[in-house]
Amino acid sequence: MKAVTVVYKPVGLLVGIAGGMLAGAVFSQVWKLVTHDDDAPDMLDEDRGWGEALAAAALHGAIFAVVKGVVNRAGASGVRRLTGSWPKG
């Protein structure tokens, strides 16, 4: 059981990085779809208002959290299918 967790950690890290990149791409597409603007505001973007910048940050955070959860859960489920054991965090 402990060996499964040790092996899963580096794999989980790599999959997590890929998930973060996926979340960024999903956010960009959702932002374009919702606002019809190619560029999401940045907190340091002087030309954008507080509301728009905070809405972008909230949407980005929500998408990131969902993608991270899906990736982590799918990875753990895959490990269980392969090894019969659920990896511990």
UniProtKB/TrEMBL annotation:
InterPro entries: DUF4235. Keywords: Membrane, Transmembrane, Transmembrane helix. It holds the Pfam family DUF4235. It comes from the Bacteria. The chain crosses the membrane at residues 12-33, 53-71. This is DUF4235 domain-containing protein. It comes from Streptomyces polygonati.
